[in-house]
Amino acid sequence: MRLLAAMSGGVDSAVAAALAVDAGHDVTGVHLALSPDRQTLRSGARGCCSVEDAHDARRVADELGIPFYVWDLADRFREDVVDDFVAEYAAGRTPNPCLRCNEKIKFSAVLDRALGLGFDAVVTGHHARLEGGELRRSVDAGKDQSYVLGVLTGEQLAGAMFPLGSMTKDRVREIAAERGFAVAAKPDSHDICFIPDGDTRGFLNRRLGSLPGPVVDAATGEQVGEHGGTYGFTVGQRRGLGIAVGDQRPRYVLAIEPVSRTVTVGTADLAAVPGVRTGPPSWTGPVPPLPFTAEVQVRAHAAPVACRVSAGDDGGLLIEFAEEQRGVAPGQSAVLYEPDAVRGDRVLGQSAVRTACATEEPLSR
């Protein structure tokens, strides 16, 4: 097969490209330039896509003896990922930019261009498995990235290859070291690549400005603090609230209202929700008949929970949790997996959370 290897400059994509070469494929490497100011995007283990990363990727490609190119997708990345991230926070929602990047950049812009150039598929260093065209969790649960790939369609998965899904991250580094790759011990990038200092609130403040408003306690309706912008909060957040309350019980963000600029907080017993309503879903394969039982993961590092999925409003879904969940924020992706009793690692699809179900609404079982 003629394959395009997306090479970030990290150890995962380096080993993925090497394994594709070992398998006898005709491989070409490509590094994605996603920032107009790449000199500033790496700080220790944070960020990615810097000139340093491009050089690391090129060195690996040279050692593999494969062609290597840099594709400038900075404008597309800004529009589809960065601007979307800012707009979602401004609207009181909590987006996942890695999921959006996979959907709009790596498996839309890159895959479309690759297929147009005659490549058969795009190879990446994601920790997930493809078996018989089905997306499944990685064998390394601690590094599993199936959640941020849950937005991909069956057509996109047909043009993808994930060689690392059947091995642990330790084994990936061993392979890189055995080959003498300089990136073998390179730290993984963390946080959001376009916010290398990790200060999301500061990043949004520079783009949206100061938008002060009240922090209100749900139980009493009293104002217990002030904030500089609702974009600095996410539902379920506990730390950094800047509030003063009469008792010592911790408070969590329960709701964000960007129009009135109100952040509502409350105690743990008010933070749990029995389910969510979502927008229209996307599926990684055939559309499952509704209703059905599944497992759902509502954050990248959350534990999956059993759920019942049925038709919701306006083409969306109603997802009812077997156990109430905290920290479920509008804008997050609810990724659905096969029930654990079946196998529990196959991704069925995903849908963006719109609202939590009302706590007084009875749940069907």
From TrEMBL:
Superkingdom per UniProt: Bacteria
Residues under site feature: Interaction with tRNA: H126, Q332
One Gene Ontology cellular component annotation held by this UniProt entry: cytoplasm
SUPFAM superfamilies registered for this protein in UniProt: Adenine nucleotide alpha hydrolases-like
Reactions listed under catalytic activity: S-sulfanyl-L-cysteinyl-[protein] + uridine(34) in tRNA + AH2 + ATP = 2-thiouridine(34) in tRNA + L-cysteinyl-[protein] + A + AMP + diphosphate + H(+)
Tagged with keyword Transferase: yes
Keywords annotated in UniProt: ATP-binding, Cytoplasm, Disulfide bond, Nucleotide-binding, RNA-binding, Transferase, tRNA processing, tRNA-binding
EC number: 2.8.1.13
GO molecular function ontology, one term from the record: ATP binding
Residue ranges annotated for the tRNA-specific 2-thiouridylase MnmA-like C-terminal domain, each copy included: 277-349
Cellular localisation: Cytoplasm
Similarity remark: Belongs to the MnmA/TRMU family.
Protein's name according to its UniProt entry: tRNA-specific 2-thiouridylase MnmA
Naturally occurring in which organism (per UniProt): Blastococcus mobilis
Encoding gene, per UniProt annotation: mnmA
